Amino acid sequence: MGTVFIFILIILVASILQTSTGFGFSILATPFLLLIFEPKEAIQINLILSLVISLALIVKIRSDIDGGVVRRFIWGSLPGLLLGIGIFVLLKINLLKVTVSLVILLLTILLILNFRIRKSKTRDGITGGLAGTLTTSIGMPGPPLLLYFSGTNSTKERLRATTLAFYLFIYLASLLVQVSVAGTNAIIWTSSLYALPIVAVGLFLGQLLFNVINQKMFRIFTYVLLLFTSIYLLLESLN
């Protein structure tokens, strides 16, 4: 019962964050799902549910999507998808999590210190490549996208819509790559099915939260989430 409660709590909170920010599900869910599932199971459950959330939200917010950025993200992510699955197969999961946590921590500190990034087509492609690599390797495309958008002072509406549009591609492609290379099992699909009602509640509550937070609150919330995730990943991996 304790494991079931933890699973419900993880999915609910992560769904609320994904709906209200456009990036929270994978960043929050993946580290905690790794506590109760095998790496392959945790990553694929995350990919399935994140894809469902993106599909549920995209029609309503499509007018805020930056189509050019999404296309460059997709093209940049293609080599990253292959690199990420290679990392997943060859590296120990703890080493990967330590590396990811340190990168997120460093870049978050830079953002808090008012570090800014100038948008360009090349940087769009690089960001997509990093997101693709992190998606197939650890199921977490959010950090490079969030850091890039935050560093370029994008509005919360544009950030949420553009990342969700990119997620439709990257989650589906990553899931297909993961299943083809690492295989899948019944636990992944039954757990995802049981989580759907919880996701629906999270979608409703997350939209309410999005409507009440302003740009300043959104930015502070972003920094807190990134710092928490990076520190948690690091400590959990070292232990």
From TrEMBL:
According to the record, the signal peptide region is none
Sorted alphabetically, the keyword list is:
Cell membrane, Membrane, Transmembrane, Transmembrane helix, Transport
Q: Where in the cell is it found?
A: Cell membrane
Q: Name one Pfam family in it.
A: TauE
- State the annotated membrane topology for this chain: Multi-pass membrane protein
Q: Read off the InterPro entries from this record.
A: TM_pro_TauE-like (IPR002781), TSUP (IPR052017)
- The membrane spanning regions, by residue number, are 43-61, 73-93, 99-117, 164-188, 194-213, 220-238
Q: Which family does it belong to?
A: Belongs to the 4-toluene sulfonate uptake permease (TSUP) (TC 2.A.102) family.
Tell me the protein's name. Answer: Probable membrane transporter protein
